[in-house]
Design goal:
With 85 residues, the chain is mainly alpha-helical. The protein is built from 3 helices and 2 strands.
Length: 85
């Protein structure tokens, strides 16, 4: 695969922008099982288990649905009160 050079400019602090080229990324072959191992290790380190995510989503959903209902008239009244403060 042909990878063209990429150009970028970085600026540190108040200095002038500095031009730079990114390096080539060497393409390597990886076995599917090795890719899966890396993904599994990454998930174990950074991702929550699915049951925990489901529990968090359900908790947020419940909290959202339990919020007090406010009528349009109450909202208009609050807006009107804020205008005069």
């Amino acid at each position: 695969m042909c990878q063209p050079m990429r150009h970028a400019h970085i600026k540190i602090g108040d200095g002038d922008p500095i031009p730079m080229l990114t390096t080539f990324v060497k393409e390597i072959r990886a076995r599917e099982k090795d890719k899966e191992k890396v993904i599994a290790r990454s998930n174990a380190k950074y991702a929550l288990p699915a049951f925990e995510v489901d529990r968090l989503i359900e908790g947020r959903r419940t909290a959202l649905l339990e919020q007090p209902k406010i009528s349009a008239e109450q909202i208009e009244e609050e807006i009107e009160n804020e205008r005069w403060q």
